[in-house]
Amino acid sequence: MRIDPAIAALRADRSLQQQAQVAMGATGAAWRRDHAVAAAIEDLDRYGAGAPLEACPALEAMFSDAVTAPELAGALARHFVPVLREREFAHPPFRHSHAGALSTLLLARSGRACLTIHAREPGRWSYELAGYTDALRHEAVLAGAGEGRILRCAKRPDGAYHLDSETLSLTAGDRLALDLGSETLQVVSARIRLVTLRLQREAADPAPSREHALPDGRLLRQASGAIRSSRQEMMLALLGRMGRAEAAPVMAEMACEDGDPSLRWQAMRESLALDTATGFAALVALARRPHDPLARAAGALRAQLVEAHPELLALEATCPA
Fold first, then answer.
1. What is the extent of the structural domain holding 55?
2. What is the rounded distance in angstroms from the CA atom of residue 47 to the CA atom of residue 135?
3. CB count, 10 Å around CB of 252?
């Protein structure tokens, strides 16, 4: 097996990699102090804490003028490229990922907000669903060219969802502002590598995220928009997979309390799976609460279960009115 001399040198002397990372750390600190970056990072702290974007002028400028965002990207290259040229195995001090044609670099995060660079390689993409989250997004196209569409989701009086599509070209200098609770951007194609700077802020108390089928807008699934609730859902699922029947009463109680509807519904499902009597009693109680956001879903599930298992009617008769 051939080992590149540069890699062999690193294996022989680990201090070389340590020196590279020290250099990267110093470069990252210098980049954050750069005049094209420092004010925006300070504004990100305020924006992440809930301040309106218009109260963060340096950050807002990146998504309203044609100069500020490219200056930030230029500062990134100006500081890091020379170090990477000299120390090619050094790791930039940013969280990064690469999946298929999409690469992401997390430049900064503060509170509920994050600032990232996305690069999409040339190609075409198709979609079967559209996703929505309770967040605000601002996007600046730094380089490249492609096509995309904005899918706007609206809820009808009968409870069904409807999707409207707006096609658009994406070229350097374009700026977008999206309310991700009802709007989502899908990149359909990229003719030249498409690079964008993205600012996103989650809601303080986020509503559940949703996935809708294309093109009819049918709701496919939803999940908690809050990290804490998502973790609790995972805990509930784990207890269910472990068969911990003693947890069913606690889950049934969670399902009937106020709180995140997604978390409550997960508790209901797991309670039913662990202990039919306990879970079904909670389901009936939910179905009888007309103002509860889960009442309709609980009633539909109760009807399905009774149709499949008529013996549950006898159990329902014992439930408190």
1. 1-93
2. 13
3. 26
